Amino acid sequence: MKIAMVGLGLIGGSAALDLRRAGFATRLVGVEANDAHARQALDLGLVDAVAPLEQAAAEADLVVLAVPVTAIAELLPRVLDVAGGTVTDMGSTKADIGRAVETHPQRHRYVAAHPMAGTEHSGPAAAHPGLFADKVAIVCDRERSGVEHLARVESMFRALGMRLTSMGAADHDLHVAYVSHLSHVSSFALATAVLAMEKDAGTIFDLASGGFASTVRLAKSSPAMWGPIFEQNADHVSAALAAYIAQLREFQHRLARRDFEGLESFMREANRIRPVLERIGRGPTS
Amino acid sequence: MKIAMVGLGLIGGSAALDLRRAGFATRLVGVEANDAHARQALDLGLVDAVAPLEQAAAEADLVVLAVPVTAIAELLPRVLDVAGGTVTDMGSTKADIGRAVETHPQRHRYVAAHPMAGTEHSGPAAAHPGLFADKVAIVCDRERSGVEHLARVESMFRALGMRLTSMGAADHDLHVAYVSHLSHVSSFALATAVLAMEKDAGTIFDLASGGFASTVRLAKSSPAMWGPIFEQNADHVSAALAAYIAQLREFQHRLARRDFEGLESFMREANRIRPVLERIGRGPTS
User: Fold this and answer.
1) What angle do CA A252, A255, A259 make, to 5 degrees?
2) What contacts A162, CB < 8 A, 6 or more positions away?
3) Average pLDDT, rounded, for chain B
4) What is the model's pTM?
5) Among B50, B211, B216, B281, which residue's Cβ finds the most Cβ atoms within 10 Å?
6) Does residue A138 contact residue A114 with C-beta atoms inside 8 Å?
7) pLDDT at residue A149 greater than cutoff 90
8) Backbone phi, then psi, for A108, in 5-degree steps?
9) pLDDT classification of B283: cutoffs 50, 70, 90
10) Which residue of B has its CA nearest to A258?
């Protein structure tokens, strides 16, 4: 299958590697606004060629948009204008992107998707095989897509080794605000709080255990990718952040009252995340 | 050397394993209030025998307190009353514990220490070799300890493969509030916020990527260990938590104003944690 990969960073580059390895892609054409990244992607063998957006989109059996979510919302109508095949995306928000093509005559060619995979790194050099394996791909608003387009995109995610699930775009954006986007906010703010206090990086290094490194890891994430996600999912992220701050204030309140029984019961409640994390660690069982 | 290990959980059990392996401990006597844990520690071969506190402390060359920090503050004077050798501890706070023995006639036998190592697991079964290797051990208020006692404790941490650093107890408690204790609060509250929203654990499982698992991992930590830490370090943890909430509110404010430039610069500031984390990942260079 001829695939146009729009965006050759961590996500697009990793998908290109595995789609070729799986034999799903027979030809891969990249679209990349950053010339240095385009050259790097060619050098790394992520794609066979690079081409302008409209040309690549018109010639492909499947167009995959793997750029920041505001760019997806902007490019998707242009891609649908020229596409003769199937179009999908890998963005972390779904409602705004869906609205951008709601009345497009080719809407049925588009399958709204979100593979739940990534790392805190970015760019073509961060691409690596196996990024998507055993993770979940969410397909949204399936009823808006043509059956042959759904089948093609779902077989692509299966070729990446992913488990499929589906939900409405609005539900998707609500849940990912809590389970994914909020983790990033909490890490970014933990980093700025600690950096503001500890002017001497050596002190952080001396005192930081693996626990700190794990909690703050997502603070390394790309602002260019996450800015647009927070922009598109601002309302849900605001609500999730308010709920998080309310929990922290409850903790703070119990600490101020020296209510250590209350703090322990707060922590016992938090411990209920344990079986969920153990299930994530084990990977899919179905 | 004859060692009395007071507390046979993750920390005490792991230390026992490595001190024996390194040839530093020739005999290990455990003290453990929980009978099931005591039997388990014997079954696992963590210690040669278990004994009551005063007996074990009187007979040992080195007594190591590896119990929750409020228990350390309570047991330390009793141990110093009978000890003929050296006494140290592995608690995550130092000022309160130091105050408990400030005027004790045997204060010079005690070396206040905090090995920066641990996991979110607890109990004798969680003990494992190598837990302390390449981590930092902080020795506090060195001037209060006798030179031969300092030498003995520092050689113990070196036998565990640790790098040594030192600071005052008050400084220690301030810095660990930010770099260690705050990470735990942020994880506990992230878990309770997500669990309150997502009644269906299956949804968390479907949507959670490795990023969520990493950020929330510390929420699995033991309330029995962390309650006393928050109790003893309440003032510094309150200040750190207030600073963290202020950062989150700044993020929330920029989001509410749709100030996406401001959000990106917030994230770029957070990205400055990157070289620190890379240094932690690489381990000690000195």
Assistant:
1) 130
2) A115, A117, A132, A133, A134, A135, A136, A137
3) 94
4) 0.91
5) B216
6) yes
7) yes
8) -65, -20
9) low
10) B231
ipTM computed for the complex: 0.90
Contacts of B194 in chain A (CB under 8 A): 178-179, 182, 273
pLDDT for the residue A285: 40
**CATH numbers and ranges of domains, chain B:** 2-169 (3.40.50.720)
Chain A residues touching residue B258 (CB < 8 angstroms): 231, 234
3-state percent breakdown (helix, strand, coil) of chain B, nearest 5: 60, 15, 25
- If one compares A21 and A282, the residue with the highest pLDDT of the two is A21
CB contact under 8 A, B270 and A219: yes
pLDDT in tens, A215-249: 999 999 999 999 999 999 999 999 999 999 999 99
Give the H/E segment covering residue A71: helix A69-82
> In chain A, which residues have their Cβ closer than 8 Å to the Cβ of B214?
183, 214-215, 217-218
- How long, in residues, is chain B? 286
Whether the CA torsion B144, B145, B151, B152 is positive or negative: it is negative
Concatenated DSSP letters of B88-140 = EE--S--HHHHHHTTT-TTGGGEEEEEE----S--SGGG--TTTTTT-EEEEE
* Helix-then-strand count for chain B, H and E: 14, 8
Residue A209 has pLDDT above 80, yes or no: no
Instruction: Enter the DSSP assignment of B49.
Output: E
d(CA B38, CA B9): 9
What confidence score (pLDDT) does residue A129 get? 95
Interface of B with A in 106-165 (CB under 8 A): 116-120, 135-136, 138, 165
* CB contact at 8 A, B190 and B219: yes
pLDDT per residue as tens digits for the range B81-126: 999 999 999 999 999 999 999 999 999 999 999 999 888 888 999 9
